[in-house]
Design goal:
By secondary structure, the chain is of the alpha+beta class. The protein is 19% helix and 42% strand. The protein has a five-stranded antiparallel β-sheet. A two-stranded antiparallel sheet has the order 1-2.
Length: 135
């Protein structure tokens, strides 16, 4: 049974996670194949947004539970060059059963570079992995 709590620490709207990253050559659109310019690639920014959501609920799930991404809607509004420090903040804004919805914002200290929403689902890790097709 999926229960959104851990040791009395209830999942609740308002939980936040914030992570900081420095854009490297490996994070650029050119390196990731999502463009040909040497600025932060949107696929990397999406991964960082998901990492912030994971961080926000990491200590609020039962042993054996994890969360998996189900939907991402992110507007990447401004370029960031190699060496820029990016802060990504996620806030849990809605819980609907096992579905968690987060508002995500990324900034470079001066400007908002992205905003959007990420949805994740709480799953039992072993049961989920049991559904994975092995090749």
């Amino acid at each position: 049974m999926i229960r959104p709590k851990c040791g009395g620490m209830e999942l609740a709207a308002g939980l936040t996670g914030e992570l900081e990253f420095e854009v490297s050559d490996a994070d650029t659109a050119a390196a990731l194949g999502s463009g040909d310019v040497p600025v932060l690639g949107t696929p990397r920014l999406v991964a960082w947004a998901e990492a912030a959501t994971v961080a926000s609920v990491a200590n609020h799930l039962d042993d054996g539970q994890t969360s998996v991404g189900t939907h991402v809607a992110l507007r990447h509004r401004a370029p960031s060059v190699v060496g820029t420090t990016i802060t990504v903040r996620a806030e849990l804004i809605d819980i609907d059963g096992v579905l968690l919805r987060f508002a995500v914002v990324a900034h470079d200290g001066e400007h908002e570079i992205a905003q959007g929403e990420v949805e994740r689902a709480i799953v039992e890790r072993e049961r989920f992995l049991g559904k994975v097709t092995r090749q």
